[in-house]
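Z., the sequence and structure:
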Amino acid sequence: MDSAAPEIPLVAATPPALPPRVWKFWGTTLWGFFIFTAMFVGQIAVIGWFVLRHDGPVDMAALIRTVGAGLTVSLSVIMGLPAVAAACWVAIRFSRTPYADYLALRWTSWKNVAIGVGSLVVLVTAWDLTSRALGREITPGFMGDVLKSAQAEGALWLLVIAFCIAAPMSEEFFARGFLYRGWSESFLRPAGAIVLSSLAWTSLHLQYDWFFFGEVFSIGLLFGYLRYRTGSTWLTIVLHGLNNLAATVQSIWLTG
């Protein structure tokens, strides 16, 4: 006699989900080149667009003027942000880790913000005093030229957005977010990751000379240490933006 009990359907065993991972040294390095390339393509696309719409023959002088124009620089920097954010998303997607968690996009305490601001003020002031003692300009000539061009084109507000919001976000996503995360969990450990990510970040500022290279690198070391101590990339983004805002205001004041 058949049993009156209903048949229990067989349920196929669900394979366990793959655990999240963090890219180590070589994975972070290779994906870092991918993210850098995305940033470069995003920025160069804007420059190429302005060059193509330039009236008349494009000689070297015209090319230099177009590339260094305030509006071109502003839009180029701004377009680097979605390019970096998207490239980071691709790299992190393969790691199966939440985007915000991988890049440490979490807030920190106001005490840490105050410590970060105070440390940054001391460091930048030391570099400014050293620059004055050596008889050097306090701000790079590049900044003054771009600001004058942006003012002439009525794009100063756009330049401020580019320098103080877009650039800090894209560069911190790249350096203290993605690169530091992977390298700090490799054989480099946090100390080596701070140094190497600071070098990578400094290499993005080829428009400066050796003196400002040194200043940028030291600021990178400070940001890297704060990223390590607080576990927050938002903190370094805010500090980066404040530093760029102060430099922009200073350049505007010095150039009249």
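Residues 25-254 form one domain. The chain is about 75% helix and 0% strand.

Let me know what you think.
H.
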